[in-house]
Amino acid sequence: MSRDCLFCRIAEGSERADIVYSDPDVIVIRDIHPRAPVHLLVIPRQHLGSADEVEDPSVWSSVMNAAVRVARDMGLCAGGYRLVVNCGAGAGQTVYHLHVHLLAGRIFQWPPG
Questions:
Q1: CB 27 within 8 A of CB 21
Q2: Is there a contact between 83 and 64 (Cβ–Cβ < 8 Å)?
Q3: Predicted confidence (pLDDT) at residue 38 exceeds the cutoff of 90
Q4: DSSP letter at 22?
Q5: With CB atoms counted within 10 Å of each terminal CB, which end of the chain scores lower, N or C?
């Protein structure tokens, strides 16, 4: 945990967020600046600044399993959803704690961005 990190403070409960799922390894919150009708952030509790800091593959397993579980529980599978990981400022990362965006509820274009 990093006291300077917003997502760490949310994970420990000292910062408010709209949490839609929580387990010992991951939390899922609603994004405060949604880019789609459904825009959730899947956040590991362990502080990792970015995707390029992940050395333990179990982190990805926990994060992706939580993302799919939430998508299923929310009934998003039939309409489709997108999972996005931004790595670094040039890719659009603004909070330096690993997180996966779960987006749904509209048609997405390809390529993104």
A1: yes
A2: yes
A3: yes
A4: E
A5: C
pTM beyond 0.85: the answer is yes
* CATH code, 94: 3.30.428.10
- Does 92 reside within a domain? yes
Tell whether 22 is covered by a domain.
yes
Catalytic residue among 39, 47, 99, 101: 99
Asked about 101 being catalytic, the answer comes back as no
**Do residues 44 and 26 make contact, with C-beta atoms less than 8 angstroms apart?**
yes
60-65 long-range Cβ contacts below 8 angstroms, 24+ apart: 62/23, 62/25, 62/26, 63/26, 63/98, 63/100, 64/100
What domain range is 92 assigned to?
6-104
| Domain count across the chain | 1
Q: What pLDDT digit, counting tens, does each position of 56-95 carry?
A: 999 999 999 999 999 999 999 999 999 999 999 999 999 9
